[in-house]
């Protein structure tokens, strides 16, 4: 354990040393152009030009290292690799009907976007496949994602002017804020705050994620000019006409002009060099040693997901973590044959298993077969005292080799019944060979 701790400490020190030479960049868009500003030197350079469209939104995936953006006037979602050698090459991902804003989901690897005039929110995977429109509302504008609680927040921009939210499949639509004209949305995932830019009066506001405790953060003193915002911890980066602003919300409110451009600014994105280098080191150093560190930190629950509704399993895992349970899921693991032995030990060292069945069409790959085999063998080796908890969603079919265990029935509104689920987890699964119906 001491060795593992020292390795992690050395990693943190290495990141700190490297970060002294790193220079965060602010990526922003103007008409037909995407630029970057080095926040340390103040130097501005053009990344892409002659895009033949206004660009109102930008987002970045640190895993694949692509910046995604909607080309509103060309009816297409595009991307380019960043950082990369110049010239930067634009790739068209998917066609869309006058897309105005987008956000990426790094967990499920999807791009979500709003279509201004159709009033639709649509999605596709990072390579443009599996396109689907998940909901339709009034005319739409801004969009952001609470990736922890799995809510999409978006704004209506037609006869109604609201901030609304819905689940990632378009269900459970709710109004969060009424009577507000919003062009930019962002979430501080550490502070659990929602931020938005009121376009018609140029005012930056904030609330809790359910729309309570509304505060005014900043008045830009400009109307009909501020569009995009990007939230990074308690720092909010805003476009404000020709200006790019940095606003700090905590511990004290303050605003700074980072740059004044010659063209009107629209979308904005912070590229975090420190986060990028840390993720690179994480993949190269931390992930290989985590299979050993688990010996010191066994999981309370190892969750094996069967089905196609990854979102439901991720939400369930997150809710358990909120209750201070130490959890892991096969959704977070890669079926790498070289480390299967270590992962098997990782699973068997867990105190309990949970098998989460979200649909009945996905119990067909060797990775899941392998996980289920571990459950059966461990249950047998512990003489029946290590029974799995089985939760099935919306009457999904239980695989035949798991029918000997009791299954707990759930519906899509399971987050509202979390206390009942926690009580069940404390009681333990029934040892009888019966499945609830």
UniProtKB/TrEMBL annotation:
Q: Which SMART domains match?
A: LY (SM00135)
What's in the keyword line of the UniProt record?
Answer: Signal
Q: Work out whether the entry's keyword set contains Nucleotide-binding.
A: no
What is the residue range of the signal peptide feature?
A: 1-23
Keyword Hydrolase belongs to the record: no
Superkingdom of this protein's organism:
Eukaryota
What is the recorded name of this protein?
Answer: TIR domain-containing protein
């Amino acid at each position: 354990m001491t060795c593992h701790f020292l390795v992690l400490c050395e990693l943190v020190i290495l990141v700190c040393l490297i970060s002294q030479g790193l220079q965060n960049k602010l990526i922003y868009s103007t008409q037909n152009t995407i630029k970057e500003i080095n926040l340390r030197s103040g130097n501005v350079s053009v990344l892409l030009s002659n895009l033949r469209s206004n660009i109102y939104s930008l987002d970045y995936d640190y895993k694949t290292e692509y910046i995604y953006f909607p080309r509103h006037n060309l009816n297409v979602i595009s991307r380019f690799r960043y950082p990369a050698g110049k010239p930067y090459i634009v790739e068209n991902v998917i066609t869309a009907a006058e897309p105005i804003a987008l956000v990426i989901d790094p967990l499920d690897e999807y791009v979500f976007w709003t279509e201004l005039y159709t009033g639709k929110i649509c999605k596709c995977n990072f390579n443009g496949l599996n396109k689907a429109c998940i909901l339709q509302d009034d005319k739409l504008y801004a969009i952001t994602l609470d990736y922890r609680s799995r809510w999409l927040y978006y704004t209506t921009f037609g006869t109604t002017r609201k901030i609304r939210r819905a689940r990632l499949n378009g269900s459970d639509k709710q109004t969060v804020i009424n009577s507000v004209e919003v062009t930019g949305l962002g979430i501080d995932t550490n502070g659990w705050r929602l931020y938005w830019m009121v376009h018609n009066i140029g005012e930056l506001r904030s609330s809790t994620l359910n729309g309570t405790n509304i505060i005014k953060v900043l008045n830009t003193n400009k109307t009909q000019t501020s569009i995009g915002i990007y939230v990074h911890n308690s720092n909010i980066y805003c476009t404000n006409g020709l200006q790019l602003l940095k606003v700090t919300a905590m511990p004290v409110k303050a605003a700074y002009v980072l740059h004044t451009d010659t063209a009107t600014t629209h979308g904005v994105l912070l590229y975090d060099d420190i986060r990028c280098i840390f993720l690179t080191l994480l993949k190269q150093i931390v992930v290989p040693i985590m299979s050993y560190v688990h010996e010191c930190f066994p999981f309370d629950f190892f969750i094996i997901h069967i089905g196609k509704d990854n979102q439901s399993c991720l939400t369930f895992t997150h809710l358990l973590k909120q209750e201070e349970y130490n959890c892991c899921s096969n959704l977070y693991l890669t079926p790498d044959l070289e480390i299967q032995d270590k992962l098997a030990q990782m699973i068997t060292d867990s105190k309990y298993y949970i098998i989460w069945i979200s649909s009945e069409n996905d119990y067909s790959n060797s990775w899941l077969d392998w996980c289920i085999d571990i459950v059966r063998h461990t249950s047998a080796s512990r003489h029946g005292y290590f029974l799995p908890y089985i939760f099935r969603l919306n009457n999904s079919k239980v695989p035949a080799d798991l029918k000997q265990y009791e299954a707990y029935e759930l519906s899509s509104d399971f987050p509202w019944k979390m206390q009942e689920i926690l009580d069940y987890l404390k009681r333990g699964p029934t040892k009888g060979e019966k499945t609830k119906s």
